[in-house]
Design a protein that fits this description.
alpha+beta
Amino acid sequence: MTPPASEDAAPAAILRPAGPRDAEELSVLLSELGYPSAPEAVVRRISACADVPGLSIVVATMDERIVGVVAVHCVPTLISDAALGRITALVVADEMRGRGIGRQLVEEAEAFARKQGCERMELTSGDHRPGAHAFYVRLGYAVEARRFIKHGLGER
């Protein structure tokens, strides 16, 4: 799953599927991303995602510590014969940014999406994250649409 690091590059993180045992460390990363989550909630979410076709959650580790995570969902759509890949979560520990871990996670998500028949990948990023926006542009992503959200659907 993990490509070898070149001699002149920082060592590559080791990538592997996320599991319930990762909940404690993932709850910290999700909080950094702006989605505070108790470890128990993370266990439930990972378990709910475990057998969903077209869904992958991968963690990046260095020295046996989780330093990043990416979640990607691939879904068929009405507008195209090809499925759509969507990165729904991506975060690298603040102190580990700038070492190529985010790029490694995005490349892993894109490879998974290609295997699922996706021809397009999308993601969203809050307006308050200009550093993340510059990162996505460097990876070849472009701003193409607005995002509209309606909260509270489960409250009725």
